[in-house]
Amino acid sequence: MQKILEPIKIGSMELKNRIIMAPMGNGLSENYDEKTVAYFNKRSDGGAGLILICTMVSDQLEEIAASLFLTEESFGGLKEIVDHAHANGCKIGLQYMVGCGRMGANAKNYDVPISASACPWLYVPEMLCHELTIEEINILIEDYKKSLALALKAGVDCVEMHAYGGYLGDQFLTAAWNTRTDKYGGDVKGRATFLLELCGIAKEMGGKDFPVLVKFTPDHGVDLPGLRKIDEGIELAKVLEESGLVDALHVDAGCYEKWQLAMPCYFYQEMTMQTKSAKAVKANVHLPVLTHGRLGDVEKAASALDNDICDAVVIGRGLIADPELPNKLIENRPDDIRPCISCNEGCIGNILRFEHVECAINPYAGHETDRMPIQKTDKPKKVLVVGGGPAGCMAALLASEAGHQVELWEKTDCLGGKAIAASAPYIKADMSRIVHYYRTQILKSNITVRYYKEATVDAVKAFQPDKLIWAAGGSVIRPGSIPGLDRSNVYSCEKALRNLVPLGNRLVIVGGGQVGVEASIHFVHAGHEVTVVEMAPQMMPDPPMIQNETMLREMMAESTAVYHTSTKLVEVGEDGVVVEGPEGRYSIPCDTVLLAMGYAPDAVQADAYKDICDVITIGDSVKCRNILKATAEAYAAVASI
């Protein structure tokens, strides 16, 4: 682990460690306002060596897209971020984004997006983008110069050029999207002209020793004509190095044609494509190579450095989940790192919903100015938390942090709740880190945990709490109207995923939501014959985040599981099930039936305790949702005490 904490030089800039915060859009604002300043200051407080901040070069051709925009009016906010970071020994770099191009909405002056050439609009392929004129390219260049002058005045330590992922900068680099015949087109070197002009301007304005980084995609990971494969990516890396204008290469992977590669979710258990591309690039250049891709898992980050895959690690979601990750490594407290689970729901998902960044396991992320850290109370109360799932564990930890006397009742023999089964499929194994985190933090706290303890009116009366936080979750939906659901071979999918029930070879999973689909892929991998029945017209009718959904559907297509949509369970019999679909009723032979129809919230049970003490219901007890909601409600519950 030591190498990740060693200094590194990028050109003339020395970083105190090899942890770089990725330039993720946070949706807090388009300018450097109070919320944005607080967000980045929290990350520089946490010990990162360098923070990269995504900034649009111009607002004349496109709308600002989830990034920041530097003007005379917003300059003060950037200056505050830079000064605060420098006081922490942290460097600040602006990542300059020239635009979205074909991946975005229509441009300000046209009914279609702008792009390097008249290539198909991603979302409406039959419509061609507007090819940027030389005059329009010059608008981007001149606005970039104005922004860069302000950035240098603020004291930024470096810049990074945004040229990856299929965005406008990458569209200039890519044959599929750049068919220009002027100086900005042609071969690999010609298509790099615009990018290198921007790099050269940074060297002119910042001085020849001013560090310039380039983030690019050596391999788009898509087998389509004109998209880059790794051989061309290595050629491009050499062009950038030989220009003498670039001090480091930041390697990405994927594009919107295969978006899940660019923003890998929890289904990627192996090292990501970014690290594979970085290794190939590093073997062919002498510049420092940076990369990212679920490296908030510090064991993977350390391995990437130790195995010479890269020279520094870039972490985005991991530093949203825990800004103190670097400091905790320095203090030899890796077990205290709040682990990103790569669910993509609060970070990327919120941005796509036109909301600001949040985090499934960090209630403060994106709320640095409106959710104050829990403070020690001068009036401690006796707090009872019922339920040891994610909502209950988070509530107990926060209440303990506030100085309350906390007792946690869990009716089973372990903490973690539904997160245990959620991390059971082999495609989500490292999600179990969140369960380990909850258990470790509760062991380290002064929380009293009672296992095999169910809440009853008499038990709660005897305990005499001042506050009861009800986080007992919900019960498996098992409709009484369907004959045979009481048979001995019918179990919940949760129990099956936790290996708590015997399974036959032939399985029928009732319910094709995310749980049912993940279970089908897992059990096929384990050697079972699997059939899934879902009443809705498609599997996963309430789908997860787009990258997660896309990858799951790819795995479904590769699986031998059989999926029946618009099909309902009619009866469970001795040798199988009877279902009814568009073509009528038919039987499916099976040995075991697994229920994945969801959970019924049990908030009504909490009403029985309202005459004893104040009761707050949170998590799946209110409505079965995700950990993002559970964490937010746990914070709100404790903040209200």
What does this structure look like?
The radius of gyration is 26 Å and the shape is globular. With 641 residues, the chain is of the alpha/beta class. The chain contains 22 helices and 28 strands. α20 links the parallel β21 and β22 (562-564). The strands form seven sheets. It has an eight-stranded parallel beta barrel, surrounded by six helices. The chain has a five-stranded parallel β-sheet with strand order 16-15-14-17-28, covered by helices on one side.
Provide a quick synopsis of the model.
This protein has 641 residues and is of the alpha/beta class. It is built from 22 helices and 28 strands.
The Rg value, from CA coordinates, equals 26 Å
**Count of DSSP-assigned helices:** 22
For the largest beta-sheet, the strand count, sense and barrel status come to: 8 strands, parallel, barrel
Share in β-strands: 15-25%
Strand order of the largest sheet: 3-4-6-9-10-11-12-13
Number of strands: 28
Overall mean pLDDT stands at 96
* Distance from first to last alpha carbon: 40 Å
Q: What structural class is derived from the secondary structure elements?
A: alpha/beta
Low-confidence stretches: none
Helix content: 25-40%
So what's the overall shape? globular
